[in-house]
Design a protein that fits this description.
Radius of gyration: 17 Å
CATH architecture: Orthogonal Bundle
Distance between the termini: 41 Å
Largest sheet: 3 strands, antiparallel
Strand order of the largest sheet: 1-2-3
Strand content: 5-15%
Number of domains: 1
CATH superfamily: Winged helix-like DNA-binding domain superfamily/Winged helix DNA-binding domain
Shape: globular
Number of helices: 3
Number of strands: 3
Structural class: mainly alpha
Order of helices and strands: EEEHHH
CATH class: Mainly Alpha
Length: 86
């Protein structure tokens, strides 16, 4: 599956989203930005990545958080809020 320059393919890093045409994980780029690493340093560490791809990785990671549970409810009791409705 490819979304605006990001691809997720089971044959590439086990399906982890990467920048299309690379093996650079989207979440690694986004984590570097979130950690406050200067953009020029990130881009120097990943010479195949262009600045617009770094922006794309950040936006993708924000829209698609890695791991964790959604806050849409508790699947054990069918509640959409996670609270007992009774």
């Amino acid at each position: 599956m490819a979304i605006d320059g990001i691809i997720s393919d089971p044959e590439i890093l086990g399906g982890m989203p990467v920048i299309k045409g690379t093996r650079v994980p989207v979440y690694d780029l986004a984590a570097s930005v979130k950690a406050g690493i200067p953009r020029d340093r990130i881009l120097a560490a990943y010479p195949t990545i262009e600045e617009h791809q770094l922006d794309l990785a950040v936006a993708y990671a924000e829209a698609n958080p890695l791991g964790g549970r959604s806050h849409s409810g508790d699947p054990r009791n069918g509640s959409k809020t996670g609270f007992d409705d009774g």
